[in-house]
Amino acid sequence: MTVEPAGIGPITVKKRRGGEKALYGLIYLLSAGILVMVLYFVIYILIRGVPTVTPAFLTTAPNPIKKTVGIFPSLVNTLYIILFSLLISVPFGVGGAIYLNEYAKHRRLTGLIEFAAGVLSGIPSILYGIFGYVFFCVLLNLKVSLLAGVLTLTIMVLPIILRTTQEALRAVPVSYREGALGLGAAKWHMIRTLLLPCSLKGVLAGVILSIGRMISESAALLLVAGGSAMYMPKGSLFDQLASSGSTLSVELYRHAYSRGDNETAFGIAAVLLLIVIALNLLTRWIAKRLTEN
Amino acid sequence: MTMEAIRTEAVRAGDVRLYTEDLHLHYGDVHALKGINMEIRGHHVTALIGPSGCGKSTCLKTLNRMNDVVPRVRITGSVVLDGEDVYGKAVDVTVLRRKVGMVFQAPNPFPMSVYDNIAYGPRVHGIRRRIVLDEIVERSLVGAALWDEVKDRLKKPALSLSGGQQQRLCIARALATGPEVLLMDEPTSALDPISTLKIEELMAQLKRDYSIVIVTHNMQQAARISDYTAFFLLGELVECDRTDRMFASPRDRRTEDYITGRFG
Amino acid sequence: MSRPRRKLHRNRAPGPAGRRAHPAPASGGGTAGRGGVRPVALASQAAGAGRAGTKRPANSIDTGRWAKPPVELAMHGLFLLCGLLAVAAVLFMTVYMVASGGPVIAKVGPGAFLFGRTWDPEKMRFGILPMILASLAATFGAILIALPTGILAAVFLAKLAPPRVAAVLRALVDLLAGIPSVVYGLLGALLIMPLIFRLQTALGLPTRGSLLAAILLLVIMILPTIISVSETAIRSVPAPYEDAALALGSTRLQSIFKVIVPAARSGIAAGTVLGTGRAIGEAMAVIMVAGNAAILPELLKPVRLLTASIPLEWAYSGGLHRDALYGIGLTLFVFIMIINIVLNRMLKKGGVSLDS
Asked: Is C219 a domain residue?
């Protein structure tokens, strides 16, 4: 038995494809729509927000008597939160990634750690807020404070650092490792001198992602670090960390929702947006450098 | 007789289905095909041979315009199928590709069932009725000598078949659109010897109904299965002749060198 | 034996070269595909998906068992500790979410808490059914719009767009992923709410905030996740599938929608689940547009999502009221854990489910 050629006829008869054209139209329209929407958002925020962002806005505290608004305290709080969270999460995240990639032998254990990291990255920030409040603020008696915020966000960004570092370690060819170990290097020595430098850019990418996440964070910090940012920072670093205070995002929420002060809210939104854009550009730059080498 | 003369005569006699005329192809700055004049005869197997990078696969893909999807490709000259220029403005590429089926180097069944793989082409071309599809699936699988092996597992994933079966499935899939010419790009290079043998036997049957063009890097295979052979070197068609004649007494020195294994 | 025995570990052999379609996020996460790092929140989620697929690091050397110097042992232990921190965090969270949220559910009664229709802290009525339904409605509605939109945009990015246009759009989508949710809330309150207010006025029920506004805002917020994960999934479908489809006489769109997108479906599904998680957990942005009335959800009426009560009432809650907020937290936690487990399952068997 054989298949009879069906006799297709000439190849120059074009089929009509109205449905396809409609689908193309829809795809292009939607994509253009998304493009326009994002651009519109960015421009809208900048136009409404940038006029508010004066040097005084950035460098002073709110003054209810003079009726001026300043975001310096929340800028400082944001910086503290980012800095100290990274200080804890980077070593733990990198260490965890090294364990997973270089040491772990038990499939079950690695599976468990990776599952846990996945769960952590899937938990919404409001739940981090509740957990952080119950655990750090109440149980460890840290009260509602920046320090509690730091610790809560540390857990939140841990999976990000862990994952990007792991990806960077995976990208280091096995031959490098063989080479180093073949020369008689001890494992920790090999990790320190070979793997860590090689994965530096991955760690850096994780750090930037984490900064982005922490800058955006509001729900969790509202519960665990709370407070308002009314006063210029004073006292020792520890005093500052032990007191409550809001970050930029939390401050935006308070101005926009609780007080209905859209002008200040857009000022903060513009600052946040510019930071996010800068972080995105930085990521792009690092990624580019990463592929060049 | 010169090549030109042989060719003109063959076209006139009507047994040439497909021929190329002064076909040039550039990939960006690379001149990959340099003025190819080649003819494919109906109900015969034509083998394209030559060392790697000689342009034989590229040439094959110009016949059903699969190079269209490659960026920065520029093609001049013409490919004529049954009197129509394949690169003509009015050509519907989808109809061309139905008419000129293709089987690839590595078996590439879709991640769907055996049945859906075969029915893919007919469905895309508008056949919806179950009875018609069932019939096409069976005919195509019989045509590719695979029916007996898979008739009880049509609903199973195609990727669960063995490599050789997968390749015959791909042949059946190509047959299902009712092609007239079959292009095969090193169809056995990823297969074991037994599967290779099966495919070669299958081709001997298929040429009764189809015109087959096969790219192969294996000269023994070309000698075993083909009626005509075209030898490519560095983007040029060095020689195109009946297989028995070419292997017995190549006209070109370079062909002789290649066939006798003096370079490769 | 002086030389240590060395063993090379590799991933499970992927079968005949490139034949099996690896679902996108399962192989190397959302980032590896383009050899770069996707910025901000999105990548953390998209490639959070990457974790489950890779069992064993692709290249690592096991130096085997032989006498190790103390430094080596210490570092090994230290790294293990770092790895276990994530596990500990999850354990602690589970314990404390249950410990804080459990009592109120026991006290009010699981039925009255989960299925009660009235939330009135002053009268000590703590029924969260309206919020559960509102959250489900908002999430479902957002997915319903964002999924088709996201897939089409991903198809555009991966297959149709000229490289430069794709690069620009991708950068903008990444930016969309990085914008803080409070900024979305602000935009929603000023751009989306007035539009819907006009519609509501026309229909004679002007209110501040609505389910529709929450849905639209969530669509915008989860779109980057869905687009980015779907694009990675589509890109990782092996090229031979497309070649085969074209060679059979499919048009470009037929090959995309009948072969490539179906082959990428497990990756797209993973992106959808990620988006679902993000939508159901979002708090601050939706508070600013939803109106926050704890009534049964209707499209053009104000709704209060599960997440909203917590920040809204946190500051002045105490006693059983605060416990009830913990109870809401626990409910949300259970939802999220279910989504996580579903996602994990999906990614684990991703490669297999593709074939059937």
From this structure: yes
Q: From edge to edge, which strands make up the β-sheet containing B84-85? A: B30-41, B16-27, B73-81, B84-85
| Residue among A3, A12, A16, A17 with most chain B CBs within 10 A, to mutate | A3
Distance CA A96, CA A114 (A): 10
pLDDT in tens, C214-268: 999 999 999 999 999 999 999 999 999 999 999 999 999 999 999 999 999 988 9
Output the CA torsion B190→B194→B200→B206 (10° steps).
Answer: -100
* CATH 1.10.3720.10 describes domain A71-292: yes
Range of the domain at B128: 3-259
DSSP string spanning C282-317?
A: --HHHHHHHB---S---TTS-B--TTTHHHHHTTT-
Count up the domains in chain B and report the number: 1
| pLDDT tens column, C135-192 | 999 999 999 999 999 999 999 999 999 999 999 999 999 999 999 999 999 999 999 9
* Cα(A16)–Cα(A262) distance, integer angstroms: 53
Q: What's the Rg (C-alpha) of chain C?
A: 24
The CATH number of whichever domain residue C199 belongs to comes to: 1.10.3720.10
Contact C212, C303 (CB under 8 A): no
| Residues shown for chain C | 356
On whether residue B125 sits in a domain, the answer given is: yes
Contact with chain B for residue C353, Cβ under 8 A:
no
In a domain, C247, yes or no: yes
Residue C173 structural domain: 67-355
Looking at this predicted complex, what is its ipTM? Answer: 0.90
Q: How much of chain A is helix, strand and coil, in % rounded to 5?
A: 75, 0, 25
Q: Is residue C7 part of a domain?
A: no
Q: Is residue C2 part of a domain?
A: no
DSSP strand pairing (B211-215 vs B181-185): parallel
CB-CB contact of C30 with C47 (8 Å): yes
Q: Count of B–C CB contacts within 8 Å?
A: 79
Q: Cα separations (Å) of A195 from A106, A210, B90, C55?
A: 21, 22, 59, 20
Chain A hits for B180, CB-CB cut-off 8 Å, are: 5, 8
Q: Which chains have 3+ CB pairs within 8 A of A?
A: B, C
CATH number of the domain to which B243 belongs: 3.40.50.300
B264: in domain: no
Q: Give the Cα-Cα-Cα angle A86, A143, C119 (nearest 5 degrees).
A: 105
Domain ranges across chain A? 71-292
Check if A170 contacts C (Cβ < 8 Å): yes
Paired with B21 in beta bridges are B78
Mean pLDDT of the region C45-72: 52
Give, for all 293 residues of chain A, the pLDDT tens digit.
344 444 677 777 767 788 889 999 999 999 999 999 999 999 999 999 999 999 989 988 888 788 788 889 999 999 999 999 999 999 999 999 999 988 888 888 888 998 899 899 889 999 999 999 999 999 999 988 999 999 999 999 999 999 999 988 988 888 888 888 888 778 888 888 888 888 888 899 899 999 999 999 999 999 999 877 677 777 788 888 888 888 999 999 988 887 878 889 999 999 999 999 999 999 888 888 766 65
Positive or negative: CA dihedral A249, A251, A252, A253: positive
